[in-house]
Design a protein that fits this description.
- There is one protein chain.
- This protein is mainly alpha-helical.
- It has helices spanning about 1-15, 45-60, 60-65, 100-105, 110-120, 130-135, 135-150, and strands at about 90, 95, 170.
């Protein structure tokens, strides 16, 4: 146990004694650090982006928000991910369209995204409750991944209220009629 402590102490002292030469170039303020900096969530930005990509893949985000993703078995280039689609989802709530997440996130910073997703309430079939239930670090990872893709595509079509016929293509959620009332149920045959 003492040997590793002594080794770490010696290493720290030797690094502290190092001084840059007078002619060494000073680091540029925007240059990446030699060692990856960790975020307040304990991951490097690269780790957050990788985790965000994983969440997008397994969370089903691409199924609705990436054109052709489900139809092509997930074989869609990453630069085409999460741009929203014109496929409407129509039901008793009206018709909704998968948002272009890349445009939605474009003007947000980490804090704004975390606030937005913590309070997310949308119309079906978007499972907003699943987003609100995500750990903050996972919501941040997804955001960092989306930001790494950059803005692309067009905004999704506008929501259509119930009763308005959506243009094709759309998926229709048609509810079955309610069960017949008890008074109209078949009456038992008379005993004979």
């Amino acid at each position: 146990m003492r040997a590793p402590r002594l080794l770490l102490t010696a290493l720290a002292l030797s690094l502290a004694a190092c001084k840059p030469a007078a002619n060494d170039a000073k680091p540029v303020a925007d240059a990446p650090a030699a060692t990856p900096a960790t975020t307040s969530h304990g991951m490097t930005d690269a780790e957050l982006i990788a985790q965000g990509e994983y969440i997008a893949r397994i969370g089903g985000c691409n199924d609705c928000h990436t054109p052709g993703y489900a139809e092509k078995g997930g074989e869609v280039p990453k630069d085409q991910w999460l741009v929203g689609t014109g496929l409407g989802w129509s039901g008793p709530w009206g018709t909704t369209y998968p948002a272009n997440i890349r445009l939605k996130a474009a003007d947000m910073d980490d804090a704004a995204w975390l606030d937005y997703t913590a309070k997310l309430h949308t119309r079906p079939p978007m499972p907003d409750f699943a987003v609100r239930d995500m750990k903050e670090s996972d919501r941040l990872a997804f955001f960092r991944f989306v930001k790494s893709l950059g803005p692309a595509g067009q905004p999704a079509p506008a929501y259509l209220p119930p009763g308005q016929q959506p243009p094709i293509p759309y998926v229709e959620f048609k509810l079955p009629p309610p069960p017949a009332a008890a008074s109209t149920a078949a009456k038992p045959a008379a005993a004979g």
